[in-house]
Amino acid sequence: MSDHQAEIETRRTPGRLARAWDSDLAYSFRHAPVAMVSAAVVLILVLSALLAPWIAPYDPFDPGSLNLMNGFTPPGQPNAFTQETFVLGTDDQGRDVFSTILFGMRISLFVGFSAVLLAMVIGVVLGLLAGYLGGWVESVIMRVADIQLTFPAILVAMLIFGIAKGITPPAYRDQMAIWVLILAIGLSDWVQFARVVRGATLVEKSRDYVQAARLVGRRPFSIMIRHILPNVLNPVLVIATISLALAIIAEATLSFLGVGAPPTKPSLGTLIRIGQGFMFSGEWWILLFPALTLLALALSINLLGDWLRDALNPRLR
């Protein structure tokens, strides 16, 4: 690359960043205090979860590091036996609550992101097929979606989780519990993606650019992927953001009911279930801090989804 070309590339980069900063989406974000606070909370929680092995003072999954004498230590107070102090206290097994929250949040976020990704892939593919092909393909997909919508999503997830866990060999159930949980939540949440993508595809396939692609001999699969899909991603992104909060809550609900993450790898829902057993015996911190973390995470993601929905809605611009 010549010096002249390098200088041109150097000039282009700030221009692109400036255009992105001055875009309608960035402008809407800068003028939405709720979205900015929510994004900051989500960023802090996600980074804390990703950096848990380096931030957490203890490894709650290592039985060798646990000391039962540290059990039920109140937040910020030294233990009566070991004189150790824990910022958020300890649970009945002597595990540091702060460390368990960080590691538990990793599992909750992993399950949430993976389940939404699975639901999005299934829903987008089926929605594109239903909207573009029509006919019996659309009828079958939409009738299955209508049937699934008649049942609460959490019940569908519990049913899928029970079936998948039942066919899993007992020796691998704890190892496969997280993946079964992802499968259960993902298969219970694809319907809304499919319905939205189908509706957007019905609109887009009548546009001139799709008709032109047909005239030049483009295959239906190529038209759906290269032409229609990029134009239906905005509502998919909004649904994915809101569904992430719902998936995290669904995981916490299943784990709270005892049909989710295994006790050896507790998520936020498992920690809340453990803390609920000590709520009336004075050890309030075991329940309170994981519950507040789950509330902050789900609420912040939901608020971001609401802002993104309004920002990407052309009627509100």
TrEMBL record:
Keywords: Cell membrane, Membrane, Transmembrane, Transmembrane helix, Transport
Keyword Membrane part of the UniProt annotation: yes
Signal peptide range in chain numbering: none
Homology family: Belongs to the binding-protein-dependent transport system permease family.
Residues covered by the ABC transmembrane type-1 domain: 105-305
Protein name as it appears in the record: ABC transporter permease
Transmembrane segments: 34-56, 107-133, 145-164, 176-197, 228-250, 284-308
Lineage: Bacteria, Pseudomonadati, Pseudomonadota, Alphaproteobacteria, Rhodobacterales
GO biological process: transmembrane transport
UniProt xrefs under Pfam families: BPD_transp_1, OppC_N
InterPro entries: BP-dependent_transpt_permease (IPR050366), MetI-like (IPR000515), MetI-like_sf (IPR035906), OppC_N (IPR025966)
Subcellular location per the Swiss-Prot or TrEMBL entry: Cell membrane
Keyword Transmembrane helix part of the UniProt annotation: yes
Main location per the UniProt record: membrane
